[in-house]
Every structure is written in C-alpha cells, then in structure tokens.
Amino acid sequence: MEIAISQTHEVIILSTSQPITCNQTLMVTTHRVFEPDLNEHQTVFGGKILSLVDDSASVAAVRLTHATVVTAAFDHVNFLAPFRLDDSLCLEAYVTGTGKRSLEVFVKVIGENLTTGKRFLGFTCFITYVLDNPDAPALPSIQPETDEQCYLCAGYSQRYQERRTHRAGERELTQHLTLTAPWLTD
C-alpha cells in the first residue's frame, strides 16, 4: 500500500494492491454500565448504545481509510437483549465491505454480567461511512478470516443494493417534507 500526506496533513492511500483483512480493521473496547447510563427501565439507554457503537465503528473505518469519514447510515439495527447495571458491554467492530468511497462496518455488542460471568449478544448493526474527500482513490477490498466474517462479508453486496434502493425512497420522501415551523402555520 502506498501512502501520501496531503497539504492538510491527512494520510491518503494512493494504491491498494492487496485486500485488507477484517482483523486489520478490528476494534474492540469494553464499557462498564453505571447508573447514569440507565433509562427509566433500569437498562442502558438506547441512545447511549448508539453513541458508543458509532464512536467504536468509526475507529474500524479509519483504520482502513486512514482518512476522515462521516457516518452515512445505520441499518439492520437490532437491540437483542437489555444491558443492566453490573453488566459490561464489549463492542467489536470491523469492516465487512467497501465501495469506491463508502464502507460498511459491522458492530456487535456482547454483554457480560460481571457478577455471574454470563455472556450474551445484546446488539448488532451495520454502519455505512463515506470518505469525506470526493477525490479519494478507491478503497481496498476486504478479506474475511473467520466463519463470522465470511458470512457477513458474503452478504455485503445484497445489503449495499438494499441501501441504494432505500436511499432512492428517502430522496422521494424528503421532497414531501416541509421545513415550516409547525407552530407558525395557519
């Protein structure tokens, strides 16, 4: 891989002759649940989980791109089991597919009851990031290594097509939305 530094001191990938493995982008972090993380149901607030997930997944994205990326979409978001006080959240994120300027990151959050040691799958999603630089070279392909990674990477093309279809519907939807303050209408 050839790398250059731009005038703004951003690392730019010039060529990508070999695929990058999912594990080369892997980001793992653990967060302990404390009372301020909880909602009125005494489980971790969903917005807190989404924030942790986006923060973590962006590290996996930048490990691949070595450039600024922006969050474009969350999809296939699944809150599978609640996280409670005395649990930890182990977030794992890695790249599962690339386009010319976009990439997909898979995130799973494994809960662990710190008292009993019992582990459970609590959350999964895919996040699409887009390179901030429209003139950036094409991203390298991704090479899975584990059974999980092979399964997820094999589904990338289908999810990519689903996102394209969804974006077209979103463009139509936004044409029908008003920006008028509802409290100012007659």
TrEMBL record:
Keywords (A to Z) from UniProt:
Hydrolase
Q: Where is the HotDog ACOT-type domain?
A: 23-135
Q: Return one Gene Ontology term, BP aspect.
A: fatty acid catabolic process
Which PANTHER family does the entry mention?
ACYL COENZYME A THIOESTER HYDROLASE, CYTOSOLIC ACYL COENZYME A THIOESTER HYDROLASE
Which InterPro entries does the record match to this protein?
Cytosol_ACT, HOTDOG_ACOT, HotDog_dom_sf, Thioestr_dom
Q: Which GO terms describe its molecular function?
A: long-chain fatty acyl-CoA hydrolase activity
Q: What is this protein called?
A: Acyl-CoA hydrolase
- Listed Pfam families: 4HBT
Q: Which domain of life is it from?
A: Bacteria
The scientific name of the source species is Levilactobacillus acidifarinae DSM 19394 = JCM 15949
Q: Determine if Hydrolase is one of this entry's keywords.
A: yes
UniProt record similarity statement:
Belongs to the acyl coenzyme A hydrolase family.
Record's GO cellular component terms: cytosol
